[in-house]
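Task: complex structure prediction.
Instruction: return structure tokens for all chains below.
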Amino acid sequence: MTRNRLPFIVAGLLALAYVLFVFEGAVALPGSIRTLIVLVCAIAGLFWWARLDSKSSLAASYADDHRRFRTTGSKIGLGLFALLFVSAPVGFSWIGHGSAHLPTGLIPGLPLSDLWLTIGTFAAIYAIGAIGLNILIGNTGQISLGHSGFICLGAYSIGYFGEDLKIGGSRLPSIVWVFIAGALGALVSAAIGPFALRLRGNYLAMVSLLLVFLAQHIALNWISFTGGDINPRNDLPGFTFTLWPGRSLQFRDQGEAVFFDFFFSTKQAFFWLCWVFAAVAMIVARNVLRSRQGRAMMAVRDRDLSAEVIGVRQMYTKTWAFALSGAFAGVAGALYASYLGAVQPASFALDFSILFVAMIVIGGVGSVQGSVFGAIAIAGLLDFIKLLEPALKLLPGYQSNPGKPGMTFGVLNQLLYGLLLILFLKFFPTGFAGLWARFRRFLATWPFQN
Amino acid sequence: MTFLNGLVSGVALGAIYALIALGYVIVYRSTHILNFAQGAILTLGAYIVYLLMGPAKGTNFANPPSLLRLPYFVAIVLAMVLMAGFGWALETLVIRRFRGRPVFALIMATLGVGIILSAVKSWIWGTSPVNLDLPFGDKFFRIGGTDGLAIKYIDVFTFVLVGVIAVLFFFAFERSRLGTAMRATAADQEAAIAQGISPNVIFGMSWAISCALATLAGVLLASGAGSVASPQVSPSLGAFALVGFPAIVLGGVDSPGGAILGGGIIGIAQVMAGTYEPTIAPYVGTSFSTLVPYILMIMILVVKPSGLFGTKEVRRV
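Output:
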């Protein structure tokens, strides 16, 4: 009995402490102690959520398996995450219309600075690409290192469909060219499906290298369209969302976005936009994986021959998986190019593909949430290191001049990225998603460890 | 004359690709790992040569660190020995921990090793290129008069060296105890263990040989052989190691002879494409020659998936 109630009592006490000392400011405390309280509350909240989420997390029936939210905890967690993402660019001041009801310092660190908003936006874009790649590698078992080729395709496609193409003198709506980018990615990627039928494992990885080089070659040489690498195209369209005729939300052109009477910076607006796309991508991926097609993909991954024996068409399933991953990559590329406004062919090199594969390894192979965790981890890595600058100065050969011998942010970033990859592969092959599952299981069976 | 000139640099480039591909095949045969870290190892090897022989004379200001000032050939041999030791250590400390894991994990592990190695490289030497004291420079001799065929000494050196290494390798592979043990392990690991062969030694040896070959390939590229890279030690050398993949697919992933032939074909095809592309097909773009190896790879995979000399994959149900 006490075992069941204890966490709730602790959580309640912590919430009270939070409200008293941090939120209401009833007792004046130094900042560091406030931060400590917030930290303890955050960790306690995580435990509480994991405990709620851990109840009956195992599917015991088909109905369970088909449910979108299997536990109360997953609903609460999703709601909290949604709240966090909605409020991240502005803090919580939006609730009281800035009438100082809810102070901006409710959660330390919010609203995010422009730097962290940029990182968050890239994390969302990477998450979309990583979800697509995870469907292909994690759920269908087809190793591809060609993902950056499709992102390149999506990125440049908006140069034509968003900027050059004019129908009756006006440009296509933004939402249309994002989906065109996805469709193009799907079409080109589906062409790889038949190759995957004959090749597997190492061979497929080698063949997929061609995609990267082909995309880069075209981007470098189709100078009239892409500008090559000397004079890269910099007129890629920002995002415009038409609410009704005469009223539209501009995401880049005017330097700020307008939502009704609120003014937001481009960075804030793009953060929301990209996370909305990421959320849609997550929902689509979750649903696809729960469908017949998703089960077929996993059957092909586990043993393609047996899958065929039970009536799964290998060709169709693999082509489908490639098309789906290409579609996600295309959308990610379109958002990437739209956010940056200018892209160089050199940014879609093999390293970019490897970055996405690293995300799914660190996040969790075969898990949709894992891809998002991985994307956030990789996108935040460099700037996390920048926070550690005082410690970085102790490293041998520290200097701040990139290219010269010695430890710079870039080098340390690369070093940690490689180490993280190797260590996760060796010790946590299921990534963050697997760690989270283990944590939940630990809490669910708490006094009885397994 | 253009054709002959292209053929000469193509053969030299092909010889380097053959070295890289041979390294891949040796590791693949014994451990079934595609070593995606080869590019970083190749560059590291070239930097180790720099470490041992120092910068070119007259460029002494603000050069990245170097230890000794050994002659070119001594430095190469010593670097190969050092890198062989490094390869053994790498296999023992890192790669061995991933034995028995799925293909995807192995590929990612080697990629991770590659990322760490290039980070360490930029930590020690930075990313700007450095010049070596090259005994051949870009000196050449001509056959057939003053406007005859120009052959660079480094190309001849590369071709002869790789030829000698290939002959030595095949002799050792077929005749020596170690070579026989390697072939036995590749054919049937359990049977090899039953004969008293330690697979750990074989795996370590294959990584050691592969790293030594990669070092040689790296320093030859950095010496200007094949006329594809500027004759400098720089991080961009690693990109050439990827061309080893098409080479081994062309020759058959488990055939050392195929690797050498595949490397040669790819090298010649790449240089020929680079030579004739501007006149015959200017519309395909100037960097088309970088695509040629991969197009050849796709073509051979469609026609004969096991490559020219590879054993056909048997799938058991």
